[in-house]
Amino acid sequence: MCIPASFRRAMLAFTLILLTPVLARAADGEPPTTIADALKQAARQHRPVLVDFSAVWCYSCYYMASHVLTGPEWNAVKRKAIVVESDADSPDAQLWMKKLNISFLPSYVVLDANGNELGRIAAEQPRDKFYARINAILAHGDTLQDFEKRATQGSINDVANALEAYQARNDGTAGLSWFASLPAATQQNARKQARVTLALDQLVLLKAAAANDDPAVIRNAQKVLAQNIGCQRPYVLDDLLDASAKLSEAKRKALLAPQRASLDNYVNTRVLIPTPACADQRSAVLTSADVDKVLGDSAAEKAVLGRAIALTRQHLGNNLASDRNQADNLRVYLARAGRKDELDAVQRELIAAYPNDYVYAYRYGRSLLDAGNPADALPYLNKAADKAYGANRLAVTLQQVRALKALHKDAEAKRLASDVLTANGPWYPKQAAALKAALQS
């Protein structure tokens, strides 16, 4: 799909207003700063483009940056492909994420020089799994269309590949519809494979969740959880927790109690160990704490959070800059455990450890504001504003306006909001509307 030239010019003008420093057009040999630049390089150099969709607030992105996108394997990938980092909060990234139906951060999408997808990897991955997959995509391309074509020719492995690709696109309806279009014999043979059965059940769950059909989510989440789903267990349990929220306390406990043993085993053997087998430690810990809370076991809830905090502190030592994923996990565990004094201290340390982005100054400033301390919050919010851009800039400004109004500085709040809204132009209408509403409150 072509992007109209007028839209590209508007997008570029907006980016130049909000991004610091001003980004120059990348030349060959220089890292590209936009996907368009990367595609131009790809056409000249006859190499594919690997787009790294991430965000400064994305803890899973921190994990990939620190633990996976490093070393000789990553250097080899960069020799094979033109790598471009695309910030999910920028107009360029949001345009492409909509075009490519990106539902997860981080996401890694390989494109040819015409912008056609050759394959993707969604969410954080263990190192060995990531490189096996990305190198396969770069070697021969693993597009959804390729999977579908080979599946129609009888490849059961590619039936599973196609279904999992639909899952990565968060599109249960389309995936199930495609499977239903296969010859009956192919469907019958495919259903004999555990991988296909699991993928189909997960697509049914996705479809139910998209339709907000809580009873169907509950039925299908239980069905998925009864299978060997590895590192996806916390995410499916989160679906079950959300879908059961309106049930009576007794019914909800009866629903979740049978899941506890497998979840505890997952946390104890794959997550809260010195070398975790699953990349997303945070989701496992928080889901475990949430299940304990629903079951009324406050001691277990406190214990799993305490273990996570202790293990994370041990990993970090006294250096929060040594592993941003773990450092951000520590912040979240302390918040979930209600350990406010420790949390405040860690938030201040995070601001010092990562001074070149807005996110920690913003979070700490907002926490102070929510606690009723606008005068203390404002300097941190102002610091965040100096680093924020795009959708982030509107979010920070909203909190600055709240703080200024609480301090009875309404005129200053109006000037600040007007300046930012003017620079924002037509972009991010929801965030802009929230900012305008805050001025009227």
From TrEMBL:
Q: Which UniProt keywords apply?
A: Signal
Q: Which domain of life is it from?
A: Bacteria
Query: The Thioredoxin domain covers which part of the protein?
Result: 5-139
Q: Which InterPro entries match?
A: Thioredoxin-like_sf, Thioredoxin_domain
Signal peptide region: 1-26
A Pfam family reported for this protein in Swiss-Prot or TrEMBL: Thioredoxin_7
Write down what this protein is called. Answer: Thioredoxin family protein
Species of the source: Rhodanobacter lycopersici
Q: What is the lineage of its organism?
A: Bacteria, Pseudomonadati, Pseudomonadota, Gammaproteobacteria, Lysobacterales
